[in-house]
UniProtKB/TrEMBL annotation, chain A:
UniProt family annotation: Belongs to the short-chain dehydrogenases/reductases (SDR) family.
Native source species: Kocuria marina
Pfam family, one: adh_short_C2
Cross-referenced NCBIfam families: PRK08261.1
Top-level lineage group: Bacteria
Protein name: 3-ketoacyl-ACP reductase
InterPro entries found in the cross-reference section: KR_dom, NAD(P)-bd_dom_sf, SDR, SDR_fam
Ketoreductase domain segment(s): 221-402
TrEMBL record, chain B:
Region (Disordered): 1-38, 190-215
Domain Thiolase N-terminal, residue spans: 44-313
The organism of origin for this protein: Kocuria marina
The organism's taxonomic lineage, starting at the top: Bacteria, Bacillati, Actinomycetota, Actinomycetes, Micrococcales
Gene3D superfamilies hit by this protein: 3.40.47.10
Ranges annotated as biased composition (Low complexity): 14-38
One annotated GO molecular function: acetyl-CoA C-acetyltransferase activity
Thiolase C-terminal domain segment(s): 321-467
Cross-referenced InterPro entries: 3-ketoacyl-CoA_Thiolase, Thiolase, Thiolase-like, Thiolase_AS, Thiolase_C, Thiolase_N
SUPFAM superfamilies for the chain: Thiolase-like (SSF53901)
Protein name: Acetyl-CoA acetyltransferase
């Protein structure tokens, strides 16, 4: 699905017109490329904490031009702000105002990234209340920490030119040099996070590997993607394969023709399977283990919509959505966790939805299932951690796909503009976020739900 | 799909780094590595695939034989994850074939996800084409000539070739040879208006002029097969097929095509009562009551099937789990032209010869698949085996072969329900039977044996034995 408005406002006349009329001016986002997957320009590291120094050395390790003062640079590719040591709301000002002086120097596709610590209060996609080693905070400390959240989300809304702003939350007992922190920093700088905006990733422990090959972050892994025949699932399959994994695509028998084309393209076996089959988990394991010796990664992507206003909802529509979107995930994950045939660092990513976060008119059943995914992921995190693994969710917002192409044209135009990037995301954007969460670089990230929504105004 | 994961897990699976890429590098299209295996190797069915069968004039009306065969092969390649592999051979065919499809199977392979360096050949043995391709590929494996191959078949009754009349054809050929205007005009001299009518292929026997249905009507009458018995068999076929779909049996045997996800001839709610309301279509001119209807005869059908057959060694190397061994097959033919035997009765002769060769009786079999060209074909063959006269006079046996336990017969439905795209039927039956054998062997812990029998035009028939591995 092409966004003709986006194409228009990026052409000569359309650009002028949109500027004069004050219309939204979305830009083509900086997406992942195998060479030079960093913002162009210097990286400004602000804030006084030790975490800033650690981040700066990581940035230098990636051959980036790192500066510590805004006045030293003309072209800024990214700004990293260390707020990990803030104790009171007054501690936010210095770095915030220095960032202010650098905002106009930010290049298109640039990044603003905060490093801070979690506090109870506003949800940040993390199971923050359940983080191990959480410190007892004074009201002032909590205010300062939560202040970062509000500030970062406002920055994200103010940015233009495809600049995004995201935050990394370091659990209290996680050091700044934990692999997950470096991994999250790399992700937010990368085109792999193009459509992730205004979001936080919490690093809960020091597991993982910061030195993964960034072009092939899942190299050598054996993966399964459900709902893989088309749309986001097909893209996730392709992106994981391009990122080094051997991926077995799974979809219902009725989608077998598209599934077999994908499998043949990637030279892997296709598995025609209904995820609601009570044996689905075992069948997935059997195929992966018999063909490739083990199973490392699973993407629970299969999902359906049966939209109706609640007043018109019937049993079949309700039950089928719950069965496919959440119950199948629960059952398959349970089977996988009971198995001894998983790889040493099993990782699962589940597809949630912004509808699960914010609710959506006409989607009581769907939102129930997708919010359920977010809850299940948080509760499964400690279980899979025992096996050395992680489980996370991504919650896509408006993604240009077959599903959203069915939305009436006017409503679709509005929906795709209602986010900070003023455009819909692509299946590739979702796939890239999933690929990161499945990589060992994300080993310290567990039980989280990452929104891939361009900071949708819905349920922010 | 993998009943035997422990076995394969213990072998050395291709774990680790980008095995897809590694496999690609190991098998370049121009590989000169030999494809042969050990002489005396067992040939095993590893997997099967077909597109849903469609009644003629349905969703596949505009699909060619090549389109459908390619889709069946590609679905099989995807199911087994062997895209890019060079196989030893692909054998397939079609009964109704355009002259331009002289290399149908090879062209389908070239359009498929297989390595283009995979050789292919066409086979034609009427409705037994699919069985003959299975037999041929299995034999090559047993001889050590190849390690892996695909057997299959396809037919389209919708996209049938239409030829010009014999008179017009001769005139056109003469025209092609003509050099002068006078010669060109002369080419049409003998043409009559009737020659302009197109010649459409029919299922009539060339030597008798009778359609297959009329031939079977004679056999039905001879064996006194009742209307009720035929309708019961037809209803069971639909019910068995529907139940198999319901329990997901076809999840790894069928890949959708052109928007069709299930056989569209299937009537899950079919009953003897409903079938009883249909008017007879064959045998209406015979002395006895006509019993053969559209409900207990197979409709014209479009479809394709493919079966992967390999040596056990090749299956192991590719981490694929064999379903069943292709043990042996036997072809028979009868003299139907003089009326000495019924057109579709050859399997009644092929089966006892095959069983004798393996020291088996009908009752030793765990599954029996008899292709339902017509319900009465199956019933006539069963009746013949129960007849002491037939078994003595025609087969030279001291005692009748006896009866087949109906609980073992066509357990997942057969051609009356799925339809019968002539050359595709053998592949359908072999794949489904191999899967059922594997499942039953796993369930019972005992080896299972199946018999398959398929009749064909020209008074021919092929029988085959499959055994669980």
């Amino acid at each position: 699905m092409t966004d003709t408005y986006l194409d228009m406002v990026n052409s000569g006349l359309g650009k002028q017109l949109a500027g004069k009329l004050g219309l939204p001016r979305p830009v083509t986002l900086r997406r992942f490329t195998a060479d030079g997957d960093f913002p162009s320009g210097s990286v400004l590291v602000l804030g006084r904490g030790a975490a800033g120094d650690v981040a700066a050395s990581a940035l230098l390790g990636w051959d980036l031009d790192v500066r510590r003062h805004a006045q030293d640079v003309d072209r800024v590719g990214a700004v990293v702000i260390d707020y990990t040591e803030v104790e009171s709301p007054a501690d936010l000002a210095d770095a915030a105002l220095e960032l202010a002086s650098a905002v106009r120097k930010l290049r298109p596709g640039g990044r603003v990234i905060t490093l801070s610590r979690p506090a109870p209060g506003i949800g940040t996609g993390a199971a923050s209340g359940t983080l191990p080693g959480a410190r007892q905070l004074t009201p002032s400390q909590a205010a300062a920490r939560q202040g970062v959240v509000g500030m970062l989300r406002s920055i994200a809304q103010e940015m233009r030119g495809g600049v995004t702003a995201n935050g990394i939350l370091l659990a209290d007992d996680v050091a700044a040099d934990a692999p997950g922190v470096t991994g999250a920093l790399r992700f937010f700088l990368s085109g792999r996070s193009a459509y992730v905006d205004g979001q936080f990733l919490t690093v809960g422990d020091d597991r993982g590997d910061a030195d993964v090959d960034w072009v092939h972050p899942v190299a050598g892994k054996v993966a399964v993607v459900t709902g893989a025949a088309r749309g986001i699932g097909a893209q996730v399959t392709r992106t994981l394969a391009a990122s080094g994994a051997t991926v077995i695509p799974v979809d219902v028998p009725a989608a077998g023709d598209a599934l077999s084309k994908l499998a043949n393209e990637l030279r892997v076996p296709a598995l025609q399977l209904d995820v609601t089959d009570p044996q689905a988990g075992q069948k997935i394991l059997d195929l992966a283990v018999s063909r490739y010796g083990r199973l490392d990664l699973v993407v629970h992507n299969a999902g359906i919509t049966r939209d109706k206003m609640l007043a018109n909802m019937d049993q079949a529509k309700w039950d089928s959505v719950i069965a496919v979107n959440i119950e199948s995930q629960l059952r398959i994950t349970e089977t996988l966790l009971a198995s001894d045939q998983l790889g040493p660092a099993p990782r699962i990513v589940c597809l949630a939805s912004t509808s699960g976060v914010a609710g959506n008119r006409g989607q009581t059943n769907y939102a129930a299932s997708k919010a359920g995914v977010i809850g299940a992921v948080a509760a499964t995190a400690p279980l899979i951690a025992e096996k050395g693994g992680t489980i996370n969710a991504v919650a896509p917002g408006f993604i240009e796909s077959d599903m959203t192409a069915k939305i009436p044209a006017a409503r679709r135009q509005i929906s795709r503009r209602l986010n900070s990037l003023q455009q819909g995301g692509t299946p590739e954007d979702v796939a890239q976020a999933i690929t990161f969460l499945l990589s060992d670089a994300a080993g310290g990230i567990n039980g989280q739900t990452l929104r891939v929504c361009g900071q949708s105004l819905v349920g922010a | 799909m993998s009943e035997n994961t422990q076995n394969t897990a213990q072998s050395t699976p291709a774990t680790g780094t980008g095995s897809g890429a590694a496999k690609r590098a190991a098998a370049p299209a121009t590989s000169s590595a030999p494809q042969g295996g050990a002489k005396g190797a067992r040939a095993v069915v590893v997997a099967g695939n077909r597109i849903p069968f469609s009644r003629a004039g349905g969703p596949y009306a505009n699909a060619s034989n090549q389109d459908m065969l390619t889709a069946a092969i590609d679905g099989l390649v995807a199911r087994t994850g062997i895209a890019g592999e060079r196989l030893g051979a692909v054998a397939a065919g079609a009964v109704i074939k355009h002259s331009r499809d002289f290399n149908l199977t090879r062209e389908s392979v070239l359009g498929s996800a297989l390595d283009p360096a995979t050789p292919a050949y066409d086979v034609q043995m009427a409705c037994a084409t699919g069985m003959e391709t299975v037999s041929s590929i299995a034999n090559k494996i047993r001889l050590g000539q190849i390690q892996a191959g695909i057997a299959g078949g396809v037919d389209s009754s919708s996209d049938a070739p239409i030829a010009v009349s014999e008179g017009l054809r001769r005139a056109l050929l003469k025209l092609q040879r003509a050099k002068t205007t006078a010669q060109k005009l002369k080419a049409f001299k003998d043409l009559r208006p009737g020659d302009l009518a197109p010649s459409v292929p029919s299922s009539g026997e060339p030597r008798t002029g009778l359609s297959m249905g009329e031939h079977q009507a004679l056999t039905t009458q001879k064996w006194g097969i009742t209307r009720e018995a035929q309708d019961e068999l037809a209803a069971a076929s639909h019910q068995h097929l529907a139940a198999a779909y319901e329990r997901g049996f076809f999840d790894d045997l069928v890949t959708p095509f052109n928007g069709l996800t299930k056989d569209n001839n299937m009537r899950p709610d079919s009953t003897v009562e409903k079938l009883g309301g249909l008017n007879p279509v064959f045998g209406k001119k015979l002395s006895s009551e006509a019993t053969m209807t559209a409900g207990n005869s197979t409709p014209l059908t479009d479809g394709a099937s493919a079966v992967l057959i390999t040596s056990e060694e090749w299956a192991g190397e590719h981490h694929l789990t064999p379903l069943a061994e292709v043990v042996d097959s036997e072809a028979a033919a009868v003299d139907f032209v003089t009326g000495n035997e019924g057109l579709l009765m050859a399997p009644a002769y092929a089966v006892p010869r095959l069983l004798a060769r393996h020291d088996l009786t009908l009752q030793d079999l765990d599954l029996v698949e008899i292709h339902e060209a017509f319900a009465s074909t199956v019933l006539s063959i069963l009746a013949a085996w129960e007849s002491p006269e037939f078994c003595k006079d025609r087969l030279g046996l001291d005692a009748p072969l006896g009866s087949v336990d109906r609980a073992k017969l066509n357990v997942n439905g057969s051609s009356l329900a799925t339809g019968h795209p002539f050359a595709a039927t053998g592949g359908r039956i072999v794949a489904s039977t191999a899967k059922e054998l594997a499942a039953r062997a796993k369930e019972t812990g005992k080896p299972q044996t199946a018999l398959i029998s398929v009749c064909a035009a020209g008074g021919q028939g092929v029988a085959m034995l499959l055994r669980s591995v």
